[in-house]
């Protein structure tokens, strides 16, 4: 997500923005993946003024920047999806597609089945709500958004299986903000998702990292990550008095298909650290692999006074939070 200070640093003139600097330190890592998915927690509507919290509206150039950084698909069902109205749902999903990315969760195509190296992967995304803005929508407009509805999730998974999906990934937007442990609601629903047939459940919304869980159903074992923290945002120790908001995690998940059976063969976790740097006269929020800061010498001018210590905290605290 992109707060007002991030919009300010990405603005080069009245009508030109560029967010690519935010991802320059993690681009190589992202591009090493076969298929990279993220959660886009904002809207993008050029017919309204661009803004950060509480009504997020990010310039559409961000999708080209994300594509260039290595992303392939973006989940869009979250509590900020309606920040620029139902029209913003359409402008956002269209802008994502125009950048060459896959959009799933909202819009006219709320789900997707994509083929990656011979494996057909179904992508679904759902949100607990849309900050109350959903209450002003008519029945037809509500068809453009997804809710965390148990029956709908089960029907969607069944539909994916009937249409040849080998593997099912769900991105739920749920939980309590800034809580380091998943709620009972999250745990129960996540387990049901796996029992319905989901292979991976990757949650967001709390803005801090939460634990992971393996859950066994009758015919497979599913991986659940309740919250990945903040991949990129202006939240950090200095702005939130909460160091966990500058920490995140990327999961590297190896999927294998043998004799029509598709399974998770391995998972690696990569703690991330988000912090501003001073670059070309500007303060730019960047995302880093925490390990890179710990292991490599750098001339980067960090805002944090002790970047190695902060990166080490990100690494150690993320590892502990995951209970990996």
From TrEMBL:
Tree of life domain: Bacteria
Capsule synthesis protein CapA domain ranges (all copies): 1-235
Transmembrane regions listed in the UniProt entry: none
Family: Belongs to the CapA family.
Protein name, as recorded: CapA family protein
Organism: Campylobacter portucalensis
């Amino acid at each position: 997500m992109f707060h007002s200070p991030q919009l300010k640093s990405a603005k080069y003139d009245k009508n030109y923005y560029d967010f690519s600097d935010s991802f320059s330190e993690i681009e190589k890592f992202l591009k090493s993946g076969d298929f990279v998915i993220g959660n886009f927690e904002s809207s993008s509507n050029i017919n309204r003024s661009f803004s950060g919290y509480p009504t997020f509206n990010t310039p559409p150039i961000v999708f080209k920047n994300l594509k260039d950084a290595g992303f392939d698909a973006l989940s869009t069902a979250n509590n900020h999806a309606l920040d620029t109205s139902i029209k913003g749902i359409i402008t956002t999903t269209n802008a994502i597609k125009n950048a060459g990315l896959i959009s799933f969760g909202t819009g006219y195509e709320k789900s997707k089945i994509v083929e990656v190296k011979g494996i057909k992967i179904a992508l679904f995304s759902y949100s607990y709500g849309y900050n109350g803005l959903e209450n002003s929508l008519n029945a037809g407009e509500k068809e453009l958004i997804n809710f965390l509805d148990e029956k709908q999730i089960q029907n969607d998974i069944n539909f994916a299986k009937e249409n040849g999906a080998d593997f099912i990934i769900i991105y739920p937007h749920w939980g309590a903000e800034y809580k380091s442990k998943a709620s009972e609601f999250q745990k129960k629903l996540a387990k049901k998702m796996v029992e319905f047939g989901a292979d991976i459940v990757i949650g967001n919304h709390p803005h801090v990292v939460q634990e992971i869980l393996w859950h066994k159903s009758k015919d497979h074992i599913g991986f659940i990550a309740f919250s990945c923290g903040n991949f990129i945002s202006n939240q950090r120790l200095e702005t939130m008095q909460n160091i966990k908001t500058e920490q995140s995690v990327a999961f590297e998940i190896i999927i294998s298909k043998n004799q029509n059976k598709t399974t998770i063969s391995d998972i690696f976790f990569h703690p991330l650290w988000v912090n501003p740097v001073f670059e070309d006269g500007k303060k730019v929020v960047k995302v880093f692999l925490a390990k890179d800061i710990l292991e490599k010498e750098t001339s980067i001018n960090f805002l944090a006074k002790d970047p190695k210590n902060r990166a080490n905290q990100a690494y150690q605290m993320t590892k502990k939070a995951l209970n990996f």
